[in-house]
Design goal:
The complex is a heterodimer of chains A (204) and B (225).
Chain A: H1 2-24, E1 36-48, E2 53-66, E3 69-82, E4 88-101, E5 108-123, E6 128-130, E7 135-137, E8 141-156, E9 160-174, E10 179-181, E11 184-196, H2 199-203
Antiparallel strand pairs in A: 1-2, 1-11, 2-3, 3-4, 4-5, 5-8, 6-7, 8-9, 9-10, 9-11
Chain B: H1 2-26, E1 38-49, E2 57-69, E3 72-85, E4 89-102, E5 112-129, E6 142-159, E7 163-186, E8 189-218
Antiparallel strand pairs in B: 1-2, 1-8, 2-3, 3-4, 4-5, 5-6, 6-7, 7-8
The chains are: A mainly beta (204), B mainly beta (225).
Chain lengths: 204, 225
């Protein structure tokens, strides 16, 4: 019950924030500019090729160093894998990508991005024989992947934005026993924070 | 020791951040037509093709660049590439090296900048045959160190003054011990045999890299912009 309340509050919070902004009618047409530092924390769900769902906690930090171009780092902490064919026991990921923010004359910010990442992966079953222990062992693999990102943000001026985004992650788990396709379509949404770190200098 | 390392890294990041922020506001610079001195930092993904195992590999890496002259740039890179060998094993390649990039053409437009590249690389390669439920193959892992030279061509696509994406293709020759991975059919069962041969050989692969770079700083304030 408490979890439900927390989820409802989390979902409603961006609406309160944006509601306050719109009543003041101070919306700038385009809040995105160089110097914008943003970040967020949310949950993400990945839909794998074998009808599995992987659940993550996702955190990101992004810096816009030039108009319409940003560099962003994401961390995905793997929570669980669901589905009949779920086999991943671990899939923590680190991703760095650059994004192009498509110019619009509104607070809506669509963007696309591309970048490489590294995953720490491990399977729940299978594995290779460890002759010392006599058990089947699933070792952790360090595996590169490529991520195609896309998303949509809605900026409440100065401090907040809400977003919905997706990514197609292309990669394979390789470790000590077998190859496993860890490619997936990943979706997430939530509330992010942003600050213009160059605001003072711009005013001068 | 770890604290010193972290403190050093933080100082490095802060130094470049302050350089970047300062330049962004006080002196907007067009890094595309610099005479040299540009420091840039980026990430890359690399595909490895036509290697000795015949399987395509896939990698994660990063690079920084220091441009020396208008027509001469240097790239310092590190890559980690993994390759599945017929689902029976894996190959891991760690590359660390540098390339010199020559810009032979000077176009009027600024967004497209092709280059030739050549350089050196040091590599560590490890081939792991997968263990099965009945056989532990961890004692059959083979590895080697090697030196390499690479040559190729590529291009930057400049998007704005401070950012570029690029693609390059290069052929890399490795000089080192031969690690041979063969898939053989043993009475209907596919097996991976990994052997290391004495003596050095030359083996090569084609690397196709897609990267993005951010121009961070003008290290020695070039005259031309």
């Amino acid at each position: 019950m408490e979890i439900k309340k927390a989820v409802i509050i989390l979902l409603m919070f961006p609406l309160f924030v944006m509601g306050q902004d719109s009543t003041k009618n101070k919306y700038p047409k385009r809040v995105l500019d160089n110097g914008m530092l943003s970040g967020g924390l949310t949950f993400a769900v990945g839909f794998g090729n074998s009808k599995t769902q992987n659940i993550y906690v996702q955190g990101y930090a992004e810096y816009m160093f030039q108009k319409n171009i940003s560099v962003r780092g994401d961390i995905f902490v793997f929570i669980n894998s669901l589905g009949e064919n779920a086999r991943l026991k671990m899939n923590h990921q680190l991703l760095v990508f650059s994004a192009y923010h498509i110019p619009t004359n509104s607070p809506i910010d669509p963007y696309v991005g591309l970048g490489p990442g590294l995953a720490l992966t491990r399977l729940t079953d299978g594995g290779g024989l460890d002759s010392v222990s006599g058990n089947l062992e699933q070792k952790i693999g360090v595996n590169p992947f490529l991520s195609f990102n896309f998303g949509l943000r809605y900026y409440a001026p100065k401090w907040f934005h809400m977003y919905i985004e997706g990514a197609y992650v292309l990669g394979r788990h390789l470790s000590n026993s077998e190859t496993f396709d860890m490619s997936e379509l990943r979706l997430s949404f939530g509330l992010g924070f942003n600050i213009d770190v160059l605001a003072k200098r711009k005013r001068k | 020791m770890q604290r010193k390392l972290i403190a050093g890294l933080l100082a490095f990041v802060l130094l470049f951040a302050s350089q970047t922020l300062g330049q962004e506001i006080e002196k907007p610079k067009d890094f595309r037509t610099t005479d040299g001195g540009t420091f840039s930092l980026g990430m890359r993904t690399t595909g490895s093709f036509f290697g000795v195992d015949g399987n395509p590999g896939f990698g994660f890496g990063g690079q920084f660049r220091i441009q020396l002259l208008r027509w001469l740039n240097t790239e310092w890179f590190a890559d980690y590439i993994t390759t599945s060998i017929g689902d029976l094993g894996k190959r891991e390649d760690y590359h660390i090296g540098w390339s010199v990039m020559f810009y032979p053409f000077k176009f009027k437009q600024k967004w497209f900048q092709p280059y030739l590249l050549a350089g050196h690389c040091f590599d560590y390669t490890k081939v792991t045959p997968y263990s099965t439920a009945t056989q532990d193959n961890s004692d059959k892992i083979q590895d080697r160190w090697s030196a390499a030279a690479q040559i190729g061509l590529g291009t930057h696509f400049h998007i704005g003054n401070r950012f570029d994406i690029g693609i390059s293709g290069q052929y890399m020759f490795h000089l080192g011990k031969e690690i041979h991975a063969d898939i053989i059919d043993n009475s209907g069962v596919r097996e991976l045999h990994v052997e290391t041969h004495k003596g050095n050989i030359l083996e090569g692969h084609l690397l196709v890299t897609v990267n993005f770079n951010v121009k961070i700083a003008d290290l020695w304030k070039s005259k031309k912009q």
